[in-house]
From TrEMBL:
Gene3D superfamilies: Chloroperoxidase-like. Residues 1-20 form the signal peptide. The lineage of its organism: Eukaryota, Fungi, Dikarya, Basidiomycota, Agaricomycotina. SUPFAM superfamilies: Cloroperoxidase (SSF47571). PROSITE patterns: HEME_HALOPEROXIDASE. This is Heme-thiolate peroxidase. Belongs to the chloroperoxidase family.
Length: 375
């Protein structure tokens, strides 16, 4: 974190020859010597370890007096993830939407009962791509100066609105990136959600409706989006997204697996827990995603600049290759953003990469750890 206003002044003088401190600017224009000098002025603390599982993972009231809903204030960040949006609106996360990895792991466990290793993997894989390793901050929405001065390009620190990681094509309630706004609630998309729930779920969103809707969304992007892409990590998050509402948006006292559509809208559009809402009883990860995938299995790939030109991508992990997912994510995604980090940046990346690998192992995957920046 920045140590004082003096540091802000030093950075402004160093980066800008005239004018005020920039609202959002990278250090990429500096030489290695200048960059090292600036980084030394930052108060850096190694990223703290993630929390462990909840001591009590029973169904408890989460829309309580300590976590009232509050409407957004100017500058607050919200993005493509309805769960994180809701947690911020109720104060389980900072209400401005600028968060640390530890805060997210705590919040998704306390508010929704995500299983600990699953929560850690999601959080650190997302943070490494979209967050700021030096300040340990990430926006749950768009890029913002509130996450601190950026590391050098090609790192972007662009928040969860970044295309093709947490956010991606075939979202149930957000439009594809190609069509413009990829993070705001989209009523047309939600009406597809409603239609398939009525046709295949008897008026509720369940595994059958989720399966058919996921197939429809794939075909819709295939036939209408020339840049449509479904490769790792988005391949994994797309199928997790399909079952997330069933696993986490149904009141914990209800074991039917049938999500009411008004409750769904409460989360997806209004970013709030329903009145008297209890989190699910017992921690869970992405149960049911295999059912959705196996009904209409696909291979990872992308359209080739025209609609309906989908081509298999052999470099992407499939859903049955979690270790390839981990390895390619680190060696391709992360290294492309941070090709040659040094000093505190390198240390922060290595610590966060260790937390990611620890979560992979804790989830039961016997993967070989990779060290892009040395041990």
């Amino acid at each position: 974190m920045f140590s004082s206003l003096v540091v802000y002044s030093l950075l402004a003088i160093k980066i800008c020859t005239v004018g005020a401190f920039p609202a959002y600017q990278s250090l990429a224009g500096l030489t290695r010597e200048e960059l090292d000098a600036v980084v030394r002025t930052l108060q850096y603390d190694p990223p703290p370890p993630p929390p462990g599982p909840l001591a009590n993972d029973s169904a408890i009231l989460v829309n309580d007096a300590d976590h009232p809903y509050m409407s957004l204030q100017p500058g607050d960040q919200r993005g493509p993830c309805p769960a994180l949006n809701t947690l911020a609106s109720h104060g389980y996360l900072p209400r401005n939407g600028i968060v640390t990895p530890v805060q997210i792991v705590n919040a998704v466990q306390e508010g929704f009962n995500l299983e600990n290793s699953f929560a850690r993997f999601l959080v650190y894989s997302t943070f490494l791509v979209n967050g700021n390793p030096i300040t340990n901050l990430m926006s749950i929405g768009d890029a913002t100066s509130a996450t601190g001065q950026n590391p050098p390009a090609p790192a972007t620190v662009a928040g969860l609105d970044t295309h093709n990681n947490c956010e991606g094509d075939t979202s149930m309630t957000r439009a594809d990136f190609y069509f413009g706004d990829n993070h705001s609630f989209n009523e047309t998309r939600f009406q597809n959600f409603v239609t398939f729930s009525n046709e295949y779920g008897g008026g509720k969103f369940n595994l059958t409706a989720a399966t058919e809707l996921r197939h429809f969304l794939f075909q819709d992007s295939l036939l209408n989006n020339p840049t449509f892409s479904m490769v790792s990590p988005r391949l994994f998050t797309a199928y997790g997204e399909s079952v997330f509402p069933i696993n986490f948006f149904i009141d914990g006292r209800d074991t039917s697996g049938q999500l009411d559509l008004d409750v769904a809208r409460s989360f997806f559009q209004n970013m709030t827990f329903p009145t008297d809402f209890y989190r699910r009883n017992g921690a869970i990860s992405n149960e049911g995603y295999e059912t959705v995938f196996n009904a209409y299995p696909i291979v990872p790939g992308a359209n080739q600049g025209t609609v309906n030109s989908y081509k298999y991508d052999p470099t992407s992990a499939t859903l049955s290759e979690p270790c390839k997912r981990y390895t390619t994510f680190v060696l391709r995604n992360i290294q492309s953003l941070y090709p040659n980090p040094t000093g505190n940046l390198r240390e922060a990346l290595n610590i966060n990469l260790q937390y990611l690998f620890d979560a992979t192992v804790a989830a039961g995957e016997n993967c070989t750890q990779v060290f892009p920046y040395g041990q």
